[in-house]
Amino acid sequence: MHQPLDIDHVVRLYRTYADDLDRVREEQRVLLAPPHAMKAQLDDIEAEIAYLLLREARPETVVEIGTFHGWSTTWILSALRDNGTGHLYSYDVVDHVLREVPGRLAEGRWTFTQGDVRENLEKVPDTADFLFIDAAHSARFARWYVRHLLPRMRPGIPVCVHDVFHGRRALPFTEGAVVLHWLAERGNRYFTASRAHAPEIHDRLNDVKRRLALGHPVKNSTDNPMIFFRLS
């Protein structure tokens, strides 16, 4: 039986993995430094929660839809390295990530497929233990993955979907609106640390981070629009 994915659980994960997270944050900070600063898409809290959920789940197979320059990819690979197990399968229409992800993280634990994942569905492992989605943020793409990708995944796996709550509510006719409607239809609860949608959770996590000496930002942004849920 999985523990509820809520603020208390996320706080416990921060406390459990604080030392490892501190080290990974410093490694990620180096990737943002000149002269070859990586373009970072995720904000700190949402990247950290993804890392913490990966550490807890210890997945053998992780699927990442959308890599861009590899910021999320490096967070995921760091978690697999720290777990000592697991392989990441990433998919994107562009291959910037191949020039950005350090070889020390990629070697032996990463497979990248270039192309539209909708045309490569047969290459996506249906044995995935963890799913990370940060690709096209259109309603059309979301309708595709709730109909074709999510039903192939095993119940109970953690799922992360980026760019849902940039405001108090997801905008209509967007990926966020589609996936939230899909979750509501199934009574599938989600967690978010979005400053706009859940300011009290955002503030509590920042307070926890300060107490754990993790308060200094890696990336100077505080939107955190990602949602997290366990697939029902």
Automatic annotation (TrEMBL):
Pfam families: Methyltransf_24. Keywords: Methyltransferase, Transferase. This is Class I SAM-dependent methyltransferase. One of its GO terms (molecular function) is methyltransferase activity. InterPro entries: SAM-dependent_MTases_sf. Its EC number is 2.1.1.-. Coiled coil: none annotated. GO terms for biological process: methylation.
